[in-house]
Amino acid sequence: EPEVTQTPSHQVTQMGQEVILRCVPISNHLYFYWYRQILGQKVEFLVSFYNNEISEKSEIFDDQFSVERPDGSNFTLKIRSTKLEDSAMYFCASSEGQQYGYTFGSGTRLTVV
Amino acid sequence: GQQLNQSPQSMFIQEGEDVSMNCTSSSIFNTWLWYKQDPGEGPVLLIALYKAGELTSNGRLTAQFGITRKDSFLNISASIPSDVGIYFCAGTYSGNTPLVFGKGTRLSVIA
Questions:
Q1: A43 touches chain B (CB under 8 A)
Q2: How distant is the alpha carbon of residue A103 from its chain centre?
Q3: Cβ within 8 Å, pair A104-B30
Q4: Could you give the percent of chain B with pLDDT greater than 70?
Q5: Cα separation of B101 and B56, whole Å?
Q6: Counting C-beta atoms within 10 Å of the first and last residue's C-beta, which end of chain A has fewer, N or C?
Q7: pLDDT tens, position by position, B77-111
Q8: 3-state secondary structure of A85
Q9: How far is CA B105 from the centre of its chain?
Q10: Closest residue of A to B94, CA-based?
């Protein structure tokens, strides 16, 4: 079964530092997403990416966040200057189309101290 | 943004019992999905529904896309301990919008 792979599984960073979360989506999928889940809360949409550009972003996805597909397989989320409230699980997902079920990775647990 | 109301928030049931949870939206949705999340893992797709009135099963799980397009339910029959986890409904209200999630139903199964 194809899967979405995320690295690292855990990341601890100091407030103000930059972090890059990495994802390898399913190879024939065209849409890529980042979601986050603060502990005990619901899964929240951050950004969707299609055809090498952002197609939609939420109000959470401010100027501190950016996404990139640096090559044909990786999809990254960068947080420029982390804040304590950025601590959460970050999930990457991919899909064949936005109206189809998304496949999620296992997530990166980001802890900002 | 779009809000999904998912209920109940949590459930404690005996092994072997049936479970039902549901989700409602104030807007018409074109796709309803049900995911399960185990601790420390990402959501795993259980059932996808694409047509109003559609009733789909996946083993002991059955989900329906409501006729009004504003609701969906998930039933689990004869629950077992490995059904424990958080169940999320999710949906899109057009083909160009990303998936939005409900707040989840935390299911506990007592052996």
A1: yes
A2: 13
A3: no
A4: 97
A5: 20
A6: N
A7: 999 999 999 999 999 887 678 889 999 999 999 98
A8: helix
A9: 8
A10: A99
